[in-house]
Write the structure tokens for this entry.
Amino acid sequence: MNLKIETGKFKNRRIEAVNDPKTRYTTSILRQAVMNIFDFSGANLLELFAGSGVFSFEALSNGAIKSVLVDISSKSINCILKNAKTLGVLEAIKVIKSDYRKVFSKLDSQQFDFIFADPPFDLGYIDELLKLLDKNYSILKKNGYIIIEKSKNERYNVDLKHLILNEIRDYSDTELLILQRKQEE
């Protein structure tokens, strides 16, 4: 299976999907919507649950300068590296094979303009992910955004201390949670 970059300088270029039926992809409609909402020019991005890396490659296609992609799967890591080579962007990415719960200590005090996370749907990841992002809020630049793709059916209940939920966008059976750092942080 191939995925197509929908926008930017790599528009219509095809990349490989991870050869694993458990991997779910951010839809082309959702990627286009995010690229229309935010300006990725000059951005530094962190992608958690990266899969094939299609979201990062879409952002790089739209002006992002660097992306750190994190996934626990060796199949995903190999797919990301192959896709980066195909697009000629190996120098613009860093790939980390890690569980998302352990990656924050490996980021060497980096800060990101955008953090994108697309955890498996309906498996209870959202609460824990939000808690970890809130605890490690300093990796998000002051005017940066966290974008979490989740199933509309998945509920969450987290008391955020350092982050604020700005908006929830509805896309059929999917929701995007858009968060930022609180202004005093």
User: Anything to note?
Assistant: The chain is about 25% helix and 30% strand. Helices lie at 28-37, 54-61, 74-87, 125-135. The chain has one domain: 2-181.
